[in-house]
């Protein structure tokens, strides 16, 4: 089945923004943008853990880095659109808001949500990355080789 609303990479991008948003931020932006629609739970918010894997150098053999706590849920709107959420941490209210946003992004409300919720979350994430990069740059050490005149 072909996705007619948004390409899959767009959904991946907004799900990532929602999953990494600071506590309460996505819910606050969503509640300011619109009233929450009626929905039915497919899976109520539940807290669990997932194994985080890494790769040495980004390309090496995978290894288990450790576990991370996540909250997940799934719901369906009255129109039949399904929304899912996986949120970092123990935040049931944020998972509910993220699932609602995911479902509504597959409807005609997508443009409004993109402007009122997702764009501010993306700007916040960009600012956090820039701040982290600035802190890392402050500790950068430049090594150089001095040539001595001895032969």
Descriptive account of the structure:
This protein has 151 residues and is an alpha+beta fold. The chain has one domain (8-119). It has four helices and three strands. The chain has helices at 8-20, 25-33, 92-104, 110-138, and strands at 39-55, 62-77, 82-88. Strands 1-2-3 form a three-stranded antiparallel sheet. The longest helix is centred in the last third of the chain and has 29 residues, at 110-138. The termini are far apart. The model has no long low-confidence stretch (mean pLDDT 88).
Short description:
With 151 residues, the chain is of the alpha+beta class. It is built from four helices and three strands, in the order ααβββαα. The protein has one domain.
| Helix/strand order, N-terminal first | HHEEEHH
Distance between the termini: 72 Å
Helix proportion range: 40-55%
**Which parts are unreliable, with pLDDT below 50 for 5 consecutive residues or more?**
none
Bulk shape? elongated
Number of helices: 4
The largest pleated sheet is described as: 3 strands, antiparallel
């Amino acid at each position: 089945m072909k996705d007619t609303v948004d390409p899959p990479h767009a959904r991946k991008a907004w799900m990532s923004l929602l999953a990494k948003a600071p506590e309460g931020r996505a819910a606050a932006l969503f509640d300011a943008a619109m009233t929450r629609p009626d929905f039915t739970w497919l899976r109520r918010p539940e807290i669990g853990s997932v194994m985080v894997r890494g790769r040495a150098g980004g390309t090496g053999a995978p290894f288990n880095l450790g576990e991370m706590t996540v909250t997940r849920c799934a719901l369906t709107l009255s129109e039949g659109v399904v929304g899912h959420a996986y949120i970092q941490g123990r935040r049931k209210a944020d998972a509910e808001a993220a699932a609602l946003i995911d479902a509504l992004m597959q409807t005609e409300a997508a443009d409004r949500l993109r402007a009122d919720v997702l764009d501010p979350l993306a700007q916040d994430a960009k600012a956090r990355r820039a701040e982290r990069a600035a802190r890392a740059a402050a500790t950068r050490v430049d090594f150089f080789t001095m040539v001595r005149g001895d032969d």
